[in-house]
Amino acid sequence: MGIDIGTSGCKAVIFDEDGLQISMAYRGYDIISINPGWAELDTDEVIGKCFDVIRESATILEAGSVKGLGISSQGEAFTLIDKEGKSLCNALVSSDIRAKEYIKSWVEKFGEEKLYRITGHTPHPMFSLFKLLWIKENMPQLWSKSYKILCFEDLLEYRLGIKDPSMGWPLAGRTMLFDVVNHSWNQEILNALGIKENQLAKPLQSGTVAGFVNKDIAKDLGLSEQTLIVTGGHDQPCSGLGAGAIQPGIAAYSTGTVECISPAFKKPVFSDMLRENNLCTYDHVVEGLYATVAFSLTGGNLLKWFKDEFGNYENDLAKELKCNPYELLLNQLPVNPTKLLVLPYFTPSGTPYFDSSVKAAILGLDLSTGKYDILKALLEGVALEMRLNLEILEKSGYEINELRVIGGGAKSYLLNELRANILGKTITIMNVNEAGCLGVAILARAAHSGESVKDISARWTQPVSRILPDINQNYDQKFLAYKKLYPLLKTYFF
Q1: Burial class for 339, CB neighbours closer than 10 Å (0-12, 13-18, 19+)
Q2: Are residues 277 and 424 part of one domain?
Q3: How many domains does the chain contain in total?
Q4: If DSSP codes are grouped into helix, strand and coil, which group holds residue 6?
Q5: Residue 454: inside a domain, yes or no?
Q6: Phi, psi (5° rounding) for residue 159?
Q7: Rounded CA gap, 113 and 369, in Å?
Q8: CA nearest to 190, candidates 133, 268, 138
Q9: Domain for residue 437, yes or no?
Q10: C-alpha closest to that of 171 among 140, 204, 125, 209
Q11: What is the pLDDT, as a whole number, of residue 398?
Q12: Domain extent at residue 362
């Protein structure tokens, strides 16, 4: 079983010994935002729904048939836990930027380059380090009651009965409290923040057996007290394994709410170019490999926004025809590149700028501009942002020739064709619907069977089709203009 705890929902998927999906359950939940810049999840709701999907996905099997489970988790989010194991607060998720005012003074005192050399990450309010600093300063009563500080992977382990929970190295890396070379919590960072190592989960290599499901809990969930719980980690490298993107020149391209490219490489790299462009270096879930994450926080959420705000006709028609309103919108896109240029920051930017104040812009509008021209230009803007990230990675020595598309956006041929044309890369469609769950299921299978992770991945992940760039759809000139847009406009945002 693979469990994926995301920002908008959780799912559990069971695979057979040939890697074929035999059951899946999903539950959604909503982000809570009571103040501008805040983004939280109700921790107990999330864990309760994790239990629901585990139970539901296991119902089609004989009780106790699940041999092992792995956990893929959103990064950075954490919850303070008291001595009775109760949640003291909601979980602060990646898009929460309330801690941005605390970064400068703390980093100046600690040393930005030193922090990067230890953690492989550059400062941003998304990371647990700065969110913890905010809680310490603004919620001192909760801070004093905190017995454990747990991310969702280790919190689910804890709720499943492991009293000394663990987390995979990749998830530990996303806290910015972790030494990604020595694979341990960094005492200097912990001391500067004022927390103790025993408040955190044990960091273990992904694929390590963390323990077993509690007997009584297992019975309730349709599992067994012999069901292994195996460390997984941050969802992006978990998905990379699930897409089989663990070879040089190949990267996973996650196309959900956020767009994210995750290549794997053989050694940690701490270059000035990567640091200046906020491209991290941290552990992959595959032993001996490292990963980076190039991402845009504006992705599929932009297509959803357009549908909700301007797609009334398509929404109504989709109900009448019982079809997908997104496909109705995408089928109307103009064939050729648009004459518009979009800066796609409808959210704070991701890499390379880490700008939490930036705004979006659409240039080139006139009275001839149609609704579908604007939609295509928005999608072009997101893809151009990912091309910018790819260019930086390639200048840093990570040449990527193939992108294995996963996530909700992998289902649309038209979207993937547009991505291939703008990025100038081969887009590969995989035989995988739930790459994050498959990745940690591979880890669980390897821990149970003794077979190597790479061998299982080679058997369980197979390309279905490839989309090559259309040489007649040339986006080179538009990309050159796009690279100038943010530097020109950034001083005008308010």
Answers
A1: middle
A2: yes
A3: 2
A4: coil
A5: no
A6: -70, -25
A7: 47
A8: 133
A9: no
A10: 204
A11: 87
A12: 250-431+462-492
| Domain boundary residue, one of 182, 209, 234 | 234
Q: How far apart (Å, rounded) are the C-alpha atoms in residues 348 and 296? A: 9
**77 and 49 both lie in a single domain:** yes
Share above pLDDT 70 across residues of the chain, in percent, rounded to a whole number: 100
Q: How many angstroms separate the most distant Cα atoms in the chain?
A: 67
**377-420: pLDDT as tens digits:** 999 999 999 999 999 999 988 889 999 999 888 889 999 999 99
Q: Are residues 78 and 145 in the same domain?
A: yes
Span 167-225, pLDDT tens digits: 999 999 999 999 999 999 999 999 999 999 999 999 999 999 999 999 999 999 999 99
Q: Distances from the Cα of 201 to the Cαs of 177, 380, 448, in angstroms?
A: 12, 41, 22
Structure tokens at 311: 């797609």
Residue 494: the pLDDT is 67
**pLDDT less than 50: residues of the chain:** none
pLDDT value for 409: 82
394: CATH: 3.30.420.40
pLDDT of residue 410: 85
pLDDT value of residue 468: 96
Tokens matching residue 479: 């990309």
pLDDT at 95: 86
User: What is the torsional sign of CA 400, 403, 406, 407?
Assistant: positive
Shared domain for 196 and 294, answered yes or no, is: no
Whether residue 196 sits in one domain with residue 324: no
| Same structural domain, 126 and 195 | yes
pLDDT of residue 423: 97
Torsion of CA 468, 471, 477, 480, to 10 degrees: 30
Residues 14 and 141 grouped into a single domain: yes
CA neighbor of 77 nearest in space, from 201, 174, 3, 9: 174
**Same domain, yes or no: 155 and 277:** no
Residue 455, in any domain of the structure: no
